[in-house]
């Protein structure tokens, strides 16, 4: 059965999914890169994102590899695609990742400003959705053709889908880092009241991995 899920999403110990002051030079915000120490050295990240060999193969890598399993489409907020604000100045910006992004499936980008789809190397295609999260999810489910839809972030996008009751599973990696400020993922969201519970946990030297699932009775039709 296909799922809508969040995977390999990192939070600081004080609950922030990104630091303040996101920019072209600091896409994860001030201090945000240190959140992802558990991920950057894994074999999966090095191969799929950086195109490099080697890397760790322990539990952190296991969660990283699982995050790509059975994914047929992604949904990203505009910040996750690029730092440009307002109307697109031109078609020059094609994402953070170069000509061959690590997705290899259709990706639906939430934005208020229309833009033609982008066909990239490796099977990735970016589609810019201007009519909201429900429309993006419908399109992503159709494109996924029975596979999972992964909500890639950022924080605001995940919060919107959480509050809409549209997510079935989340893998959150809590990093032993304090940011003090930034974008809080769960502030004001009562997960138990929404039917969420922790169904898996594993601690490594660099992260506490938590898998949360939502009771089927709370799944939105």
TrEMBL record:
Pfam families: RibD_C. It comes from Roseateles saccharophilus. InterPro entries: DHFR-like_dom_sf, RibDG_C, Riboflavin_Biosynth_HTPR. One of its GO terms (molecular function) is 5-amino-6-(5-phosphoribosylamino)uracil reductase activity. GO terms for biological process: riboflavin biosynthetic process. It comes from the Bacteria. Residues 9-208 form the Bacterial bifunctional deaminase-reductase C-terminal domain. Gene3D superfamilies: Dihydrofolate Reductase, subunit A (3.40.430.10). This is Dihydrofolate reductase.
């Amino acid at each position: 059965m296909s799922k809508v899920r969040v995977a390999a999403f990192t939070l600081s110990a004080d609950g922030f999914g990104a630091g303040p002051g996101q920019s072209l030079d600091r896409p994860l915000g001030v201090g945000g890169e240190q959140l992802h120490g558990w991920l950057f050295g894994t074999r999966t990240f090095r191969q799929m994102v950086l195109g490099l060999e080697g890397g760790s193969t322990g539990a952190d890598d296991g969660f990283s590899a699982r995050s790509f399993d059975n994914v047929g489409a992604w949904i990203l907020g505009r910040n996750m695609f690029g730092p440009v604000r307002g109307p697109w100045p031109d078609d020059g910006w094609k994402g953070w990742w170069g000509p061959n992004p690590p997705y290899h499936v259709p990706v639906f980008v939430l934005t208020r400003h229309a833009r033609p789809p982008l066909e990239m190397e490796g099977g990735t295609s970016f589609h810019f959705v201007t009519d909201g999260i429900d429309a993006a999810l419908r399109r992503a489910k159709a494109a996924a053709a029975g596979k999972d839809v992964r909500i890639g972030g950022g924080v605001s996008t995940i919060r919107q889908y959480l509050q809409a009751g549209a997510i079935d599973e989340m893998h959150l990696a809590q990093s032993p880092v304090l940011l003090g400020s930034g974008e809080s993922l769960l502030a004001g969201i009562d997960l138990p009241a929404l039917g969420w519970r922790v169904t898996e946990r594993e601690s490594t030297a660099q992260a506490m991995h938590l898998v949360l699932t939502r009771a089927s009775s709370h799944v939105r039709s």
